[in-house]
């Protein structure tokens, strides 16, 4: 008995070989009909033997192409039409569906085998790709994803590539970036004057020689330019740091293989999976103690970011070259956007000795993603290449809404139907160049998704760049409190809608009372929130200056809590800062440029300075990162923690007073107790005070939901996440952490867009 079905598949199904996959199934099961791309879906009509049709659908559901992500399959039986064959028909460009686009994918094993095969016509060709690998997001300028809508339109296919492209049974059928040495892009090596030296494999070989000689090479990749150098050569790494104006922040390296990476780091099975996944992100790994690599790669840290070669060009640089690992960092000065346009070449050439570039244009810039394994899940430190622009499904009414995120680690979010599309990591919006890059990418996303932004969500901080950006767009602006957005971001990441508790440990966020928040205990959801508890405020002398110089923050706390003794301790802890301590004392007494702050980030900064771990931060979070890194010293088993008080303030909020802890830490430091022990006890205290605060809140308000979300930048600290979650679960709480977006400000826009949807749609809620 014959049967006909209409099958609509939604999800990431474009640019992943889905149509040729369906075509191959039609041959396997002797079916007729059609398959067609639509914006956001694939429409399949199949006719044939009832059992074979059923078998085909079963295989479609269970074994789709590796790069695809099926969101939904809708199947309807239709009348037989009498198709004589199965055919792939032209893409349909008119649709109201959500336009899913495939992220860029690392080179697949089949292309890698061909790349290294002397008998293959693409042998040593740096742009080899197929439907399962290569550039996607970075080369497309409009939908549907067809070659004329990509930067590959400039390269006319040769006869052989055209034949592969049009053959439904070929691995490169409708692979839009398809090319070969005859018809595709070319790699060229330039000297510091911009003069062309050589091309293709000769350029690759010459680059390897230069890297071994200690030169810095600018290399054009999938989403922008990198600066590369030999990771074994300490001198050239120092030179690279000077060039990038990046004195301390860790530099990532690219290792030839997992085996090479194991020479430097301890790597778990889960971390191997991360390293070798199609996304191939930078994975933060624990360094081995034998120190094979220079310490100036990640100064003062026990971790190192490593990625594997993910483009054909990367593999060619390592193949038979003797190179084992290279520093591979974005080609931009610290705090400026990644360079990706060819007109930026003069700026890149100022930063490197030679330039290995190519003539395939990049339409969208994108950084390398950075992830870390927290023992259970993948922790996203930077969500970019390989993960963007996969949409996130939501139950909220977010269609046509835009959220602009925060000022640091910025991402924005765009609502389309019942999906949220997040931008890649953009960076800190601290200068005109970064703001221009943000606006340019936002414009692309709006055009691509067809969004008119009647409403725009922004952070409540009056001086964030997002506010001035929103004003230019002439839309209705919805201000969102920073930590409420963090709270809801984690809720959305876990599919939670009912009001719940939230512990938000963060660096800096504008509070509704005009003070700086960042150690918050909230209750609510996307509709509204209530602040139930927070850390006691202390002065932040000089505001932003105290963030960059944590010792000032420490002095501010000591002088606030103990005006006389605190000054004595400050001079003992920071003897070279005596004049500045006098000035800070005056600032506090006279309330001059000393905002009041109660944040986890600033607390970590102060303790880091008191212990002499980091007095001045050269990159965001350096003091806290180096303090928490010391936890990785051999652990001293103990349940010991420092003292703290929980009090009730005039607003009937619980207030956390950690001054007893700070006092004990100072005494331990002045009495020469080991830093490692102090740091471990400090961390245990933070865990204990968070757990006890939540317990007290629920005791006072037994009607509260016992679900707790953990969000905010301080939860990049794996120990805090693990131990707070473990301790709360023992006490009967359901605890949720981030899964798909960063816990820091890189995930802020997700919370903002959900809160904005509630504001726009006036969703009722009872707390």
TrEMBL record:
Keywords attached to this entry: Hydrolase, Ligase, Metal-binding, Transferase, Zinc, Zinc-finger
Domain of life: Bacteria
Domain Acylphosphatase-like intervals: 4-90
A Pfam cross-reference name: HypF_C
Keyword Zinc-finger: yes
Molecular-function GO terms, alphabetical: acylphosphatase activity; carboxyl- or carbamoyltransferase activity; double-stranded RNA binding; ligase activity; zinc ion binding
Pathway(s) where this gene product acts: Protein modification; [NiFe] hydrogenase maturation
Matches recorded under InterPro entries: Acylphosphatase-like_dom, Acylphosphatase-like_dom_sf, ATPase_NBD, Carbamoyltrans_HypF-like, Carbamoyltransferase_HypF, DHBP_synth_RibB-like_a/b_dom, HypF_C, HypF_C_2
Positions of the YrdC-like domain: 201-386
Enzyme class, spelled out: ligase
GO BP term, example: protein maturation
Identification of the protein by name: Carbamoyltransferase
Organism: Paenisporosarcina antarctica
Gene name per UniProt: hypF
């Amino acid at each position: 008995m014959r049967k006909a079905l209409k099958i609509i598949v939604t999800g990431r199904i474009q640019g992943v070989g889905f149509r040729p996959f369906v075509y191959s199934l039609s041959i396997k099961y002797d079916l007729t009909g059609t398959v067609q791309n639509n914006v956001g879906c694939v429409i399949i009509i199949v006719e044939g033997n009832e059992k074979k049709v059923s078998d085909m659908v079963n295989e479609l559901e269970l074994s789709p192409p590796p790069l695809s992500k099926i969101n939904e399959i809708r199947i309807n039986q239709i009348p037989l039409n009498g198709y004589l064959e199965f055919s792939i028909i032209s893409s349909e460009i008119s649709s109201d569906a959500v336009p899913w686009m495939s992220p860029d994918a690392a080179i697949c094993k089949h292309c890698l085998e061909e790349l290294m095969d002397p008998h293959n016509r693409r042998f040593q060709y740096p742009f080899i790709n197929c439907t399962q690998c290569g550039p996607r997001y970075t080369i497309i300028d409009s939908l549907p994803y067809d070659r004329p809508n990509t930067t590959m339109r400039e390269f006319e296919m040769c006869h052989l590539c055209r034949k592969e492209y049009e053959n439904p049974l070929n691995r490169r059928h409708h692979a839009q970036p398809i090319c070969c040495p005859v018809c595709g892009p070319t790699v060229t090596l330039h000297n510091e004057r911009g003069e062309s030296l050589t091309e293709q494999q000769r350029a690759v070989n010459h680059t390897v020689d230069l890297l071994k000689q200690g030169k810095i090479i600018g290399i054009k990749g999938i989403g922008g330019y990198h600066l590369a150098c030999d990771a074994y050569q300490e001198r050239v790494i120092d030179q690279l740091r000077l060039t990038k104006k990046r004195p301390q922040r860790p530099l990532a390296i690219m290792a030839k293989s997992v085996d090479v990476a194991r020479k430097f780091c301890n790597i778990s099975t889960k971390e191997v999976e991360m390293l070798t996944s199609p996304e191939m992100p930078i994975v933060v790994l624990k360094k081995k103690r034998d120190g094979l690599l220079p310490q100036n790669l990640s100064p003062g840290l026990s971790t190192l970011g490593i990625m594997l070669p993910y483009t054909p060009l990367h593999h060619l640089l390592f193949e038979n070259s003797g190179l084992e690992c290279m520093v591979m960092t974005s080609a931009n000065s610290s705090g400026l956007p990644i360079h990706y346009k060819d007109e930026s070449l003069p700026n890149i050439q100022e930063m490197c000795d030679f330039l290995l570039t190519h003539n395939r244009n990049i339409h969208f810039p994108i950084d390398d993603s950075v992830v870390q394994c927290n023992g259970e899940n993948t922790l996203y430190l930077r969500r970019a290449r390989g993960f963007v622009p996969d949409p996130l499904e939501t139950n909220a009414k977010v269609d046509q809404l835009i959220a602009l995120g925060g000022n640091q680690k910025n991402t924005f979010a765009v609502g389309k139907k019942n999906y949220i599309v997040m931008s890649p990591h953009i960076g800190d919006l601290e200068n005109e160049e970064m703001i221009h890059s943000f606006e340019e990418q936002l414009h692309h996303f709006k055009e691509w998704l067809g969004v008119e932004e009647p409403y725009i969500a922004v952070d409540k901080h009056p001086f964030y760049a997002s506010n001035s950006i929103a004003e230019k767009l002439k839309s209705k602006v919805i201000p969102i409190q920073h930590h409420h957005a963090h709270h809801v971001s984690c809720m959305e990441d876990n599919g939670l809608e009912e009001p719940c508790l939230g512990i938000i440990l963060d660096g800096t966020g504008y509070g509704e009372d005009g003070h700086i928040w960042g150690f918050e205990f909230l209750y609510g959801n996307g509709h509204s929130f209530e602040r139930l508890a927070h850390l006691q405020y202390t002065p932040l002398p000089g505001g932003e200056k105290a963030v960059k110089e944590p010792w000032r923050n420490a002095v501010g706390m000591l002088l606030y809590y103990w005006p006389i003794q605190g000054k004595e301790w400050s001079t003992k802890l920071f003897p070279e800062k005596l004049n500045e301590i006098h000035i800070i004392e005056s600032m506090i007494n006279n309330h001059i440029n000393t905002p009041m702050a109660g944040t986890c980030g600033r607390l970590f900064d102060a303790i880091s300075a008191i212990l002499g771990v980091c007095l001045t931060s050269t990159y965001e979070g350096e003091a806290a990162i180096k303090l928490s890194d010391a936890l990785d010293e051999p652990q001293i088993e103990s349940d010991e923690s420092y003292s703290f008080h929980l009090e009730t303030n005039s607003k009937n909020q619980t207030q956390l007073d950690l001054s007893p802890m700070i006092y004990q830490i100072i005494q331990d430091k002045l009495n020469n107790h080991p830093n490692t022990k102090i740091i471990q006890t400090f961390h245990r205290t933070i865990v204990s005070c968070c757990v006890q605060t939540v317990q007290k809140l629920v005791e006072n308000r037994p009607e509260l939901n016992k679900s707790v979300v953990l969000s905010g930048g301080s939860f990049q600290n794996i120990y805090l996440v693990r131990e707070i979650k473990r301790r709360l679960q023992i006490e009967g709480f359901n605890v949720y952490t981030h899964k798909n977006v960063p816990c820091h400000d890189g995930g802020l826009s997700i919370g903002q867009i959900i809160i904005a949807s509630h504001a726009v749609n006036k969703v009722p809620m009872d707390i």
